[in-house]
Amino acid sequence: MKLIIGLGNPGAKYEGTRHNVGFTCLDRIAEYNNVVFKQKFNGYSCEFASDGEKIILLKPDTFMNNSGEAVTKYLSFYKCNIEDVLVIYDDLDLDFGKIRIKGKSSSGGHNGIKSIINHLKTEEFLKVKIGINNEYKKDVKNFVLSNFSKEEKGELVNLINVIDEIAGDFIKGMDGVSLMNKYN
Fold first, then answer.
1. The domain spanning residue 48 has which CATH number?
2. Which of 18, 99, 175, 177 shows its CA 20 to 30 Å from the CA of 12?
3. Which active-site residues does the annotation give?
4. Number of domains into which the chain is organized
5. Distance of CA 61 to the CA centre of its chain
6. 99: Cα separation from own chain's centroid
7. pLDDT tens profile 92-147
8. What is the pTM of this model?
9. 63-91, pLDDT tens digit by residue?
């Protein structure tokens, strides 16, 4: 079984914002696999099978800063191993459109990742960081909760396609080092 988590904030107010790019990527994967998210525990999830393996997509609805609550419940309920977890999220420190896959690494100041690390008591899960920074100034909160520009939205389609490929390779069993070598 694989658990793919996209981070973001629940609610229409946050749809399409930079901070919700993890949700946006999972929406694409769900659409491609013809599955629909339903509420369960502290999140919205859906499942499908790939080569006989169960794949669960999770969008925590605990708000970003408490993402670890939902992740912990899903891992516990489904008895999922930490090496079978992939978390997709925005990164303010990366230029827009850049992607970085990390294995064991700190939160880098990202509160959603910090929450997951604190709840799981480990940094050893795969992370896919999506660069959202084009014109970051000083007001972090307003920037990450802002919408992508029209130009960025056009580029976002290609970026989400790459994330879909990464998720596909992860689902097929590609390990973290191989994913990093291929996509970083």
1. 3.40.50.1470
2. 99
3. 19
4. 1
5. 13
6. 12
7. 889 998 999 998 888 788 899 999 999 999 999 999 999 998 666 667 788 888 88
8. 0.94
9. 999 999 999 999 999 999 999 999 999 99
